[in-house]
Amino acid sequence: GAAASRTTRSTARSKASAGAAGAASVAKFGRSTSSSREINVQSAHPSSALSQGGEIVKGGYRIYWQRWLMLFYMSALNLLSDWTCYSVAPISVLTREAFGDVDPELLVVIFLGANAVASMCEPIILSRLGLRKTVVFGSLLLMVGSIVKSGGVPLIMQSNLEQGKGEWRVYLGFFLVGLSQPLYQCTPALLSASWFPEKERTMATGIALNSNQLGIGCAFVFGTLLVATSDDIVPYFELLSLIATITFVGCAMQFDDAPPTPPSETARVMRGTVEINVPSMGDMKNMITMSIRGAANLAS
């Protein structure tokens, strides 16, 4: 009887300690790092998010499948940026025929120069905008740069490039994509700390960073497979524009700073100090629903 009583008291103390650790982690999770504003996460305790799904891991913390979606978007952005950087390398002769006097080496210099400038500004941008807005801003620059470079997007905007007279578009497009890259290339570690449990963070960070190398491979593989003549250059660049546009829309609607509850005691989140409302998937659904109801009321 005495042994059972001691066991019961020990179990109660363990549960109390776990609850205190979870509460402390939630308090830290509700604060953004650096100079970012504090966020009040009232429903961040693991026990209060049971209705939101997710898998419970050691320590009573909850992880969500959406972490893989966030990793997918960040990896796709990194892949696309380096795909663009080296897209001209295997088809430089045909690119000159399509756009005029385009120097592949100068394109890389412009890309890396813009990349260096944005890398110096990235910590300031991240502390002001937070993870979500920084990544969405980077994906916007990537999309705009890709569209400028190609002159259009398939099924959305017809390309109006004139052969031999569009070299300025290529240079400007590369510059914009170079500016965009640090905004998502320098943030995989923060994404891992916000969304992933400790045992998955190294893997998640590695996947996002190594996507750059995969993008270089795509540039050489698809460049040689899809481009046979100078007439194939514009459709090839339009394909990149379409992928970049889809990725931007996905990021704007689904990418988030952090899950509803912290994945571990050491989780961190960066939300920023600037209030900029970028509509999420739920916001878009609510707006559409309200518009339909308003139209129905007017019709009746």
Automatic annotation (TrEMBL):
<feature type="transmembrane region" description="Helical">
    <location>
        <begin position="233"/>
        <end position="253"/>
    </location>
</feature>
<protein>
    <recommendedName>
        <fullName>Major facilitator superfamily (MFS) profile domain-containing protein</fullName>
    </recommendedName>
</protein>
<feature type="transmembrane region" description="Helical">
    <location>
        <begin position="106"/>
        <end position="126"/>
    </location>
</feature>
<feature type="transmembrane region" description="Helical">
    <location>
        <begin position="168"/>
        <end position="191"/>
    </location>
</feature>
<dbReference type="Pfam" id="PF07690">
    <property type="entry name" value="MFS_1"/>
</dbReference>
<feature type="transmembrane region" description="Helical">
    <location>
        <begin position="203"/>
        <end position="227"/>
    </location>
</feature>
<feature type="region of interest" description="Disordered">
    <location>
        <begin position="1"/>
        <end position="26"/>
    </location>
</feature>
<feature type="transmembrane region" description="Helical">
    <location>
        <begin position="68"/>
        <end position="94"/>
    </location>
</feature>
<dbReference type="InterPro" id="IPR036259">
    <property type="entry name" value="MFS_trans_sf"/>
</dbReference>
<dbReference type="GO" id="GO:0022857">
    <property type="term" value="F:transmembrane transporter activity"/>
</dbReference>
<keyword id="KW-1133">Transmembrane helix</keyword>
<keyword id="KW-0812">Transmembrane</keyword>
<dbReference type="GO" id="GO:0016020">
    <property type="term" value="C:membrane"/>
</dbReference>
<keyword id="KW-0472">Membrane</keyword>
<dbReference type="InterPro" id="IPR049680">
    <property type="entry name" value="FLVCR1-2_SLC49-like"/>
</dbReference>
<feature type="transmembrane region" description="Helical">
    <location>
        <begin position="135"/>
        <end position="156"/>
    </location>
</feature>
<dbReference type="InterPro" id="IPR011701">
    <property type="entry name" value="MFS"/>
</dbReference>
<feature type="compositionally biased region" description="Low complexity">
    <location>
        <begin position="1"/>
        <end position="25"/>
    </location>
</feature>
